[in-house]
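Please predict the structure of the following assembly.
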Amino acid sequence: MTATETLHTTPLDALHRELGARMVAFAGYSMPLHYPAGIMAEHLHCRAAAALFDVSHMGQAELLGEGAAAALEALTPADVQGLKPGRQRYGLLLNEQGGILDDFMFANLGDRLFLVVNAARKHLDFPLIESVLPAGVRLRPLPGRALLAIQGPGVAALIPSGLSFMGIAPMTIAGIEVIASRSGYTGEDGYEISVPVEQATALAKALLAMPGVMPAGLGARDSLRLEAGLCLYGNDIDETTNPVEAALTWSIGKRRRMEWNFRGAEAVREALDKGPARLRVGIRPEGRQPARAHTEIRAGGAKIGEVTSGGFGPSVNGPVAMGYVQRAHAADGTPLDLVVRGKALPARVAPLPFHPHRYAR
Amino acid sequence: MSALKFTKDHEWLRLEGDVAVVGITDHAQNALGDVVFVDLPEPGREVEAGEAVAVVESVKAASDVYAPIAGKVVEVNAALAEEPGRINSDPTGAGWFFKIAPSGPLPDDLMDADAYAAFLETLA
């Protein structure tokens, strides 16, 4: 049996092939890397108009029952109980050491919580969440739902709604009942749309038929999120990074910082009190040569960190990267050397995002 | 101008007098996608056949380019620094990478266009 035979496919698999996608394996799924237009064109089109992404590989679930929000707070420092109906928030799942097990979105749908977790982590996240649930609270994975993201400045006119950034609601798009959140992973305005598997292809076709919408693959998704300064789990954050050094302290709820009753709270509190030894920062290499993940970062000849995501930013029109550096070297403008194929490539610490966010506030 | 010869690493070479011009094939540029940067060898460098001598960076990834023959690098395509997109738009013309003065006869495992097309079929 070859590797491709063991891959999962999304409900849009046939459509991807029909559209001429180049398919690659990602997190156990066969996913479109790009379509015939190519990563550069898909990226730039998303920034200029609208792009449609299949993100059905991600894990969707509902958390139901009295006390669901309080139960989830055992595993995340985010404020889940304070989230109002119709709103969504970004959160982290932590281990006992304060390391990040996953990053995820949670939303208050009134009678239940709606969760979206990473594809490569869902087999760990769901059992973990279930393990802390009290009687009467239940996790219901939603393998029967696909997830599409439509992103770009043109989306608001194509799909009008009363939602502001991080708002979520059931709605009807092209005659199909969906749950849509005003959010995404590109730095642009847009929606992530949860839809029953049976209607996923019809919805995707209806969205692609809207004026100015182009399909985009994982390649553009990665360069867009990197320019937007957003973390990729497994690259920029993992079980060895804590929320403070990952510069994700903002995702810790204010109330949670008084209670310290989440898993890993001791370690997070210590990192906050002492200040982290290293920090995730943006990095701009000089010239046009990209520095990829795992590139060594030096200052004055000594290793001070490592690139965790790096590539070429089509909208920045230059190389961009993120990585961890010792705190003394984390200020904006600090000169660094990136060791690319044995040669020192000059770079500077740069503010994130590289490309301004344009959310619907 | 002589006909293009091809390698299994998806490079092409063309003899111009005593010098071999080297680049990557249309198949290779298509697989790489939009090229954003090329790291070219220093002129004067002696290279072995199969040695990684250049790197081509697309939006997504970096890939090595190998010397198809042994010899000395005598010239590189400096225009690629400003316009790496030439590798996508004209891979066997304006998108050439470097020129090598061969240190011996051309190896006999180089493919002609038909043989390379047949080789690509085996990869599909």
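Residues 61 and 196 of chain A are 13 Å apart (CA to CA). The first strand of chain A starts at residue 8 and ends at 9.
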